[in-house]
TrEMBL record:
One of its GO terms (molecular function) is DNA binding. Residues 10-46 form the AP2-like integrase N-terminal domain. This is Arm DNA-binding domain-containing protein. The keyword Methyltransferase does not apply. It holds the Pfam family Arm-DNA-bind_4. It comes from Levilactobacillus brevis (Lactobacillus brevis). The keyword Lyase does not apply. Keywords: DNA-binding. InterPro entries: AP2-like_int_N, Integrase_recombinase_N. Gene3D superfamilies: 1.10.150.130.
Length: 133
């Protein structure tokens, strides 16, 4: 989200973003003569958040591999056996739907749409929405 303010006759912009660990960071720039210039810079930075140019890492891993690695690293050590089975069922569904799609090739919108068309809310709603992409 960008914040645009006028200070001492000049326009300044502050854009926030989150890194891969969920920590919030800011990019600031001051000295714009016109508000339109500040808005253009803010839009460029905002678009960069979605183009993975700030706060994201580029990965060649498939989405299903990423999900399995995330599960084994953060979830498996602390979950009950029944919950582990649920996550593994979810993994099979992810692998079936996304196949060999690279994680960088899946948009947030695509992910949200696919989660809406699922017939088994138990399988997806609980586990996949906890994972931050």
């Amino acid at each position: 989200m960008a914040s645009i303010n006028k200070r001492n006759g000049k326009w300044s912009v502050r854009v926030s973003f989150y890194d891969k660990f969920g920590k919030r960071h800011f990019k600031n720039k001051e000295g714009f003569n016109r508000k339109k210039e500040a808005e253009a810079w803010a839009n460029e930075i905002e678009q960069g958040k979605f183009d993975e140019s700030i706060g994201k890492t580029k990965s060649h891993a498939t989405f299903s591999d990423y999900y399995l690695n995330w599960y084994q690293t953060f979830k498996a050590p602390i979950l009950s056996e029944a919950t582990k089975r649920r996550y593994l069922i979810t993994y099979k569904e992810v692998k079936t739907y996304f196949g060999e799609s690279k994680i960088t090739g899946i948009s947030r919108l695509q992910w949200q749409i696919t989660s809406l068309i699922r017939t088994s809310p138990e399988t997806f709603n609980g586990s996949l929405f906890m994972m931050d992409l």
